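Worked example 2:
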Amino acid sequence: MTGAYGLCGGVATANKNILHGLVRLSEDYDYPLRVISLSELAGDRPRCLPAHVPFHGCAGRKHVFARALMRCAISRPTICFDHVTLALPVLPLAATGLVSTVIFGHGSEVGRRMKRTSRWSLRVARKVLTNSSFTLRNVRRRLERVDGEPCPLGLSPDFALNCTVPDPPAEPIELEAVDGRVRRLAGQVLLLVARLDPAEGEKGHAELITTLPDLISEFPSVQLVFPGPGEGRKPLAELAHRLGVADAVFMPGGVAPELLQKLYNVCYAFVMPSRQEGFGLVYLEAMNYAKPCVGCFDDGAEEVIVPGETGWLVRNPTHGAELLEILKSLLSNPERARACGLNGFRRLHERFTSQQHQDRVIASLERIL
């Protein structure tokens, strides 16, 4: 794996459930298990691993990672990879059947940004398990003959599943707005949780800021809150200043889990009109607090959000009129927003819990092993 507890991001979060599933599978069938992490240190050992399971943190050193893989390959194992590019060192062995590979596909690395070497790794894999049916369709647009199946994700095991809809936080939340003043979050907070990374510029941050002047003219209490680490804060802050809405935009950076959960709880809706999601775990986190969600068609959000039932989907967020119309509809009808949030809460419990994700991983691997 690239990593789990020592990294942030959707793949690392999904790996936590995958690891839990692998541990259960190992114990149920008495299979030996070994975990090799490319990016993590020895101190990042996953908490769910029993003491007898070896863990090798390679600290980002690709040659160390490749050597560790080749040492394992002697026993002709089944090797699961969280990213297709990690399978390259054993590609010749997989092609000749000396090892069996399972590749978890999460997004563009098995879609529009698929490398030539990745095509070969996917072709010879014993199974490709994608995070959604949407991602599997993207794989098959480029590689028709791939033995793949969807294995939809679930809430992180570290993100406590709410059995009932929680009450709003008792104390108000205050954050520094883009204009430099500390302000209280109040009214209709639209939340987007994602890295502010210039390389991932299709999450919807800029599109939401662009709609804000029109929204505020009709809904004066609207605020945008964008927690998440990354180097992309400056251009978004400049856009907010340019449009005269810097007092209503908040970018607190990476926040502690306790504050993040409070933000989910206090927000009016979770709005991430992203065009780069293979699935979208953050939608599940918002549904855990019974919040309606806004995502995009032709994206992994289709796997999670049911339009008109648990939220809304946008065709093209770069066309501001469509996104603005949906947001106005959302903000003007609090009762419908609450109903969609409750439907999403039920959908999470029915399909996307941590346990359900682990069960899907186990069921898929049982058929292979």
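The mean pLDDT is 95. The CA atoms of residues 88 and 121 lie 7 Å apart.
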